[in-house]
Amino acid sequence: MKVLGAIGICLFGVFSSPWIYGQVVEVGGRVTVATSPLRNAQVTLSGKTYRLAARTDSDGRYSFQLPGNCPCTLTVEAPGLHTATRTVPVLRTGEARSVDVMLELSGVQDSIDVSAKMWDAGNGGVAISQTVSRQDLSELPTVTRSTAKSALLDPHVRQAIGLGADYQDSNRLSINAASYRNTAYVLDGTTTYDWIYSVTPTEVVSMGATQEMKVLTGNYSAQYGVSTSGILAITTRAGGPQYHGEAFAYIRPSGIQASAPLAAFHIPNEREDWGALVGGPLGGDRTTFFASYEGAQQTRGAYIQSPLPGFFNGKVKEYYPLLRFDRQLTSTQSLMVRFNGNHYESNNVNDRISGFNQPSTGRYARTQSWGGQVAEQAVFHNKVNQARFSFVNYFPDTAIPLQSSVSVVRPNYSTEGYSTANWVHAQSYTAGDLVSIHQRRNDWKIGMELSYLRAKDYSYTPFGTYTFASGAPQPNEHPLSYSQTFGTAFLQYKQTELNAFVEDNVKLNSRLSASLGLRYEFQTLTDNDANFAPRLGLAWDIRGNGKTILRGAYGLFYDQYYLYISRRFLTLGPNAPTATYSLNYGAAGFPTFPNSLIAPPNGVSGGKRDLYLRPARLANPYASQVSAALEQNLGHGLTLEISGLYVHTLKQMRVNDINHPVPFIRTASGQYRGGTLAGAAAAADATRPYQTYARLPVRDIAVIENTASSAYSALDVGITQQAGTRLRLAAHYVLSNSVSYAMFYSDANSGVPNEWNNLASAERGPGDFYQRDRFVANAWAQLPARFQLVSVVTLASGLPVNPITGDDNNGDSYAVDRPVGYARNSFRTPLQANVDAAFSRRFSLERHLQIEARVEADNLFNRHNFITVNNVFGEGATPLASFLTPKSGITNADPARQFQLAARLIF
């Protein structure tokens, strides 16, 4: 670490040395035909004194480096297609220009000016979306080099946990204030949604291996589905006709980092990211390759704030390899083969040990996946066919306790002990086909995808859990309840998912385009077999000059179930291999603290089971979306876009405890069923309609139902500015409103009502991830002496806080009782504000070799942004002093200010 730090400091020192800087500019872009990427097209760039040639890669991309301060002409040619030309204006040193070209098929009689702005009425023209480019991924500062977290450049995307989070939960991104479990992923055209936990893609690709990521947040075309909220569509990088590559190292020394939020002293925090990538031709001009490898290791201290200040050192290791080959089989046929994997391990995932959690709650965890994809593309006159097959073998969760022991929970004070060992192993197979057909004014797309997944699942918990009253230990106190799981679960489950679509992007006249689509989705996990989703979009070029575009769209979208719910049905059903018993203090067989039971308790008056049941009919939630957008080119590189989106989602999941006690309506603070907290549970159990179910002694019987709904509306104002060669700016502000009745995460205690007789009134409130205002801006500035400054600024309203009393006043076993007079999510965390910055300079060692030195600052002004705060209001008419106070840990708060040094060798 010290050696790498010294290297980083030395490289930073060369900032003041201009002798190796060269004067070059970059021109690149993408070539498409019938809305699909075109490989191996001939691209020529001609100036007064030079002529450069290249061929497009498998994603249709090309790039050149050339002398600055000169205009040039771009020519694109391919067999069977009309030749296209573009004029590239004068570029100055250090400037990059993107020039995309859509080629027309020979024989097409329509006369279309290919130099004018083309409007795709499908995904690109009607969808509410943003694109995170290769330049964004390469230049913008980042906390953990997470590709998925770059989606936060779109203000429709919110984080569900802290920015510094890792492991599978690091990609908990909420789109349009919806549950993060509804966010879907696509990799190179194939769905990579994690059908088990639904918190991350099955295949994680590093930033260096990513070409671009499209963030689809509303009314996307019929080609996309699986989600009612949004999709992250990632494209991997490919080799090209010229060799190119990069080696890099990012170093975060511990000593210069700010203390973690709430920490009373400095705790360790150091990280190293390193990697290399290379691409180019392989054995001729018909085959190209791209290979990348990225690794990271981090030592991160997690602050423990109660009962005594302290910290725990967490160790993290990550690896991300990728290898891709592209082969031009014939002039009209190409093949892509990709292999990739990822591995993560840590002894303190997401700062599990932090805040109130003591070191004895820790576990060692690991996730990994490996797999790949084969894709074939063929062009037949006016048709393009893309066939894909992918396979992924992955472990979404594997964990063992650091020290297996009895759990002791004292809410709002401390949690000790943990004893569950578990692993999940899954394999998925996906096959798909996409046909694009150009017919005069129509661009047809017809496609299907079939996905099959099977999983093996193991878990074992040898010790039980004691729960005490909230707060510090009191003299002569006793536990309120005890629970323990008996048996070992070794499960196997599977599912098949099928989707198909057809859409027509038609140019009705020179100014008006339309997108008409129909999508069908089928999932064996649910009981729906008529999930048809129509899509309609219109794009109007108001003045006919491509400068003022009005768009509107309507669509129907479906969510998919994740198999973790099936796992719950299997492990918590009446015939489950495991059985969890709960006992109130004083019940027959209640163990002596801190011992665990050696056998399940007997009799109805002893331990009771909590069941988790599938309803008679399980439906897929669906959403109606309506959107409108106006895009105005204001000239001088300035573009304004204003869009509105409304999403109404129905048949959302929620928990219904069909064995809940009779309602206990409190009218004043400090009221408990049965008169006391200790007696509330027993008094509630006496009013439950079932004492036994399927011949089992029962307490809660959670049935998952499709009886919740939500509504989301948003106004988005975005502006982009290209001010010559010195400044580039993109800024978006979203004003939104969100209302929901439940937020379901698959646990039996999530999304439950405060009382079971007033779902339609008391449970109506803001969504858990609702932020009324969110502003995100990023800017590139070329400074004197050829330095570059890049910055990302985020300002947002605080997240909702659901106030609770901290006690189970009504004795129903769900700790969501709210203080009298307060509704769900009726408080908020403080305003969020964050500024990240990167300061860099690139030097040319020779024509094709450059070195870049950079310094990055995340959370430059050391603003403490808290995602989760203490939501225990207390029993009184006024809140406890601890109410709304922050919690420590990387999931509860964004990282404090962090500096890192970086060096990149680019060729």
Name a few traits of the molecule.
globular, mainly beta, TonB-dependent receptor
Write the layout of secondary structure elements.
Blueprint: H1 2-13, E1 24-33, E2 36-37, E3 42-46, E4 51-55, E5 61-67, E6 72-77, E7 84-88, E8 96-98, E9 101-103, H2 123-126, E10 128-132, H3 134-139, E11 157-159, E12 173-175, E13 183-187, E14 190-191, E15 210-218, E16 230-236, E17 244-252, E18 269-281, E19 287-304, E20 310-328, E21 333-346, E22 363-380, E23 383-401, E24 407-410, E25 414-416, E26 421-439, E27 442-460, E28 465-467, E29 481-486, E30 488-507, E31 512-523, E32 531-541, E33 548-558, H4 563-571, E34 579-584, E35 608-613, E36 622-635, E37 638-657, H5 677-685, E38 692-693, E39 696-723, E40 727-740, E41 773-783, E42 787-796, E43 800-801, E44 827-828, E45 832-846, E46 849-858, E47 898-906
Parallel strand pairs: 1-8, 1-9, 13-16, 24-28, 35-39
Antiparallel strand pairs: 1-2, 1-5, 3-4, 3-6, 6-7, 10-15, 11-12, 13-14, 15-16, 17-18, 17-47, 18-19, 19-20, 20-21, 21-22, 22-23, 23-26, 24-25, 26-27, 27-30, 28-29, 29-34, 30-31, 31-32, 32-33, 33-36, 34-35, 36-37, 37-39, 38-39, 39-40, 40-41, 41-42, 42-45, 43-44, 45-46, 46-47
